[in-house]
Structures are given as C-alpha cells and as structure tokens.
C-alpha cells in the first residue's frame, strides 16, 4: 500500500488540507461536489505507482477551513488554491491535473490562468452551463435552488437541483439501487455535512462561471474533456460535450455516470492513466 503524507497549506482566506502519495511527475486531483481528498481514495494509490498524486479538500469542505465561513465562493479563488498546490509540490515543473464536476471547472480556469504550469488537464463533466445555448434556463434553475434553500431548507433545494440536472425532457427513469464501494459509503456522513456549503456557496458561485473559450481554443492540445458513459444528456455531460465540440476535440468517455470515479474506481483509474499517457481520448478495450 502506498504511503500517504498529509499536510496543510495556508492560502488567502483559508487553510487547505492536502494528501500526497507516490513519486514521479505531479498529478493533482481536484475533487468536485461535496467530495474532498478522500473522494479519490479509490484511484490514488494505483496512480501513485507512477505519479506523485496530490489531492485536497477544497476550501470550506471537510478539513479545509475558511477564515470567514460566510464568504462567497469564486472559481478564480479556488483555482488560485490549486495553483498554490502546484507551486508547493511541483515548483517550476508542469503538472498533470484531473478535475471532477466543480473541480473540473477549477481545472479549466487553472489552465487558462497558468498554462505554463500545466502539462495536461482532464476535465470530467464541468457543469459550466453558461456555455450552453439554453444558459438562461439554467440560470433560472439556480435561482429556484437558492430560493428553495432559503425558504424550505436543504433537502427540498437538493431535490430541485437534482431534477434540473436530469436529461432534457426526460421523465426520471427508475434505477437500480446504486451500491457504493465501502470506502465511499463510509464517507456519507462527511458528504452530508458538506451539503449546505455546497448548495449555498459552491453551486451559485460555480454554475454562473463562464470559461474563457477563446483562451481554451489556444490551449486545446493540453485539454481533454470527459463525460460519463451513463450520464449522456444530463446537464454536466452536455456542458462537457458542448465545450469539446466548440474546441474541436473528442469527448472522452469514462465508466459510470457523473460520479463514475467513485462507483467504478478501478476502471476509471486505469482509463485516466491511459489518457494521461496518450494525451487524448482512448478506451479500455
């Protein structure tokens, strides 16, 4: 088992908890949603046989504390946190970066802000809905989510949010009960503890973010956009697919849905390794 080193990094307005495994070129894993460093436990050890794998709890999540718990959250500040991690762990050397969901939005901003520090970014389903032709509809969704959170509370707001992420016009399909790996199931309590901050601060700050598409066009050779095989048509998948088409690149498909790295860790880790090696879409076949 690969040894893990924990540390803390002081950044503007927060103290970040981070974890490092392995040796080799730096691979920074940026979690999304309510996940923290632990959300990559299923893939980090295997990748650490080849990379120095670093991940962290985003500011305000889990063990990364905010100086001001009520501070508004901005993508640019979270991106600067990721940049500080690169400066700490890979000074002067370009790094590989993987971001999931809201972490993928951070990774996109990091690429445009500090391209000299990035060898490659793999962005899995960034919910950058401002790039979509029907962005106004999704702005209205965000308003409904925040209004519901304020007037009815957390779980009704989550219900509105989840319904808005589903496939366009599709009735909710019955799904088999999702069985999470034991490590992921054990994190459920922390995930729930992070939900109010996620809904109240991350969702409005991140889903209103518009990536610099013109800048990304000039950096597209270092960017792989990805989506889940099982989340085709859902809102974060649509954003990733639209960006890939706009940039003239091929969308990489990972196993599972939006949280495929949690539900299919072995297959996802293997595919991520292949993508990092080839620099573009590939498959497990």
TrEMBL record:
Transmembrane segments: none annotated. One of its GO terms (molecular function) is hydrolase activity. Residues 25-135 form the AB hydrolase-1 domain. Keywords: Hydrolase. Coiled coil: none annotated. InterPro entries: AB_hydrolase, AB_hydrolase_1, AB_hydrolase_fold. PANTHER family: AB HYDROLASE-1 DOMAIN-CONTAINING PROTEIN, HYDROLASE, ALPHA/BETA FOLD FAMILY PROTEIN. This is Alpha/beta hydrolase.
């Amino acid at each position: 088992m690969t040894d893990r080193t924990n540390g803390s990094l002081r950044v503007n307005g927060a103290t970040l908890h981070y974890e490092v495994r392995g040796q080799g070129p730096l691979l920074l894993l940026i979690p999304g949603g309510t996940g923290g460093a632990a959300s990559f436990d299923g893939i980090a050890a295997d990748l650490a046989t080849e990379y120095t794998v670093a991940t962290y709890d985003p500011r305000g999540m889990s063990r990364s504390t905010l100086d001001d718990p009520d501070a508004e959250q901005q993508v640019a500040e979270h991106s600067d946190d990721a940049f500080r991690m690169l400066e700490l762990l890979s000074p002067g050397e370009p790094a590989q970066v993987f971001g999931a969901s809201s972490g993928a939005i951070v990774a996109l901003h990091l690429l445009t802000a500090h391209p000299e520090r990035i060898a490659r970014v793999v962005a899995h389903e960034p919910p950058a809905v401002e790039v979509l032709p029907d962005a106004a509809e999704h702005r209205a969704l965000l308003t409904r989510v925040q209004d519901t959170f304020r007037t009815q509370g957390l779980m009704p707001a989550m219900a509105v949010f989840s319904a808005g992420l589903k496939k366009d016009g599709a009735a909710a399909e019955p799904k088999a009960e999702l069985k999470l790996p034991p490590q992921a199931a054990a994190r459920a309590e922390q995930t729930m503890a992070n939900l109010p901050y996620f809904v109240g601060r991350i969702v409005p700050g991140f889903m209103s973010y518009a990536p610099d598409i013109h800048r990304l066009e000039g950096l597209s050779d270092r960017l792989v956009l990805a989506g889940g095989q099982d989340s085709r048509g859902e809102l974060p998948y649509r954003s990733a697919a639209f960006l890939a088409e706009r940039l003239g690149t091929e969308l990489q498909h990972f196993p599972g849905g939006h949280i495929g790295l949690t539900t299919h860790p072995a297959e996802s880790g293997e595919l991520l390794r292949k993508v990092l090696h080839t620099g573009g879409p590939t498959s497990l076949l």
